[in-house]
Amino acid sequence: MSLPDFNLLLTLDVLLAEQNVARAARRLQLSPSAMSRALARLRETTGDPLLVRAGRSLVPTPRALELRERIGPLVQEIDSVLRPLQALKLGELVRTFTFRSSDGFVENFGASLIERVAAEAPGVRLCFLSKPDKASTPLREGAVDLETGVLGTAMGPEIRTQALFRDQWIGVVRQDHPLARLKKVAVDRFAQARHVGISRRGEAGGPVDEALAALSLQRNVVAMAGGFVAALAIARGTDLIACVPERHTQNLRLGLHSFALPFATPSLTISLFWHPRFQADAAHVWLRRVVQETCGEGSQEGRPPSGRTRD
Questions:
Q1: Helix (H) and strand (E) counts for the chain?
Q2: Domain with 241 in it: what CATH number?
């Protein structure tokens, strides 16, 4: 089956508007003979004469009148698609953007993002989804506009990435915890204290444990939580230590004591991910900029340095 010639849509639209082969030819910058051949192809394709002679003029058939009502909007839509991107009018933008974010991101940055978006584009709605895994399938399938997290091997190679901020691991305990009274926590005392581990699968391990293993030490993990929010809730009500990323949990740690770990751990980069289909989308470009300015490195000004208590 041969594909239709979509150029005929424009030709038919002009012919039905002019109802004159010569005028239509001039408008499309074609010769009268080329326009006559195009009309012949249209008649063959539609199975209708479309324009018939009435004296010295051409008049549309009922089928042509029906097509005229449908062809006009189609040609206008094609024209808008192929034109250069126009300036985005945020005040008129009505759209829902879906985020898939790692644990703690919405709790820490969600309110600021919502306020910033509402101020610039009141017709935009943000939908936040939890992130149970690191697969890029939701981005590929278009179910998600943006995703945040640490870049991993599960992320597809075509996915676009933009770093938001670098983070570091810290320890967190309740305000009246014995460790909260110390200016510096000894590494052996840290390891011997009771800890809450963090893992979606309930398995112990991670950057903090790997760093301790290099010192021939092991944390005393007595409980496991599925994310930062749950781990900090446990630390708030017990004597357990939670190890979390500093910036990622900034708001979540209010009322808790935070301290620098007494050993080096690798930093982690929190990034923004999206599918290439949205790379040039004006509204998407705007939203990525908003996320970068709201959550990125530049928005960290004024936060306390590592080891300082947040209360």
A1: 11, 12
A2: 3.40.190.10
pTM strictly above 0.85: no
Characterize the bridge pairing of strands 268-274 and 160-167.
antiparallel
Residues 268, 265: Cα–Cα separation, whole Å: 9
257 vs 68, 78, 110, 170, 262, CA distance in Å?
71, 59, 23, 10, 15
Tokens found for residue 241: 């230590």
Domain containing 133 equals: 90-166+272-300
Q: Could you tell me the mean pLDDT of each successive run of 10 residues in the chain, 311 residues long? A: 73 87 89 90 90 87 85 73 70 93 87 95 94 80 89 78 93 95 93 92 82 95 92 96 93 94 93 89 93 77 35 33
CATH classification of the domain holding 68: 1.10.10.10
**Do 78 and 94 lie in a common domain?**
no
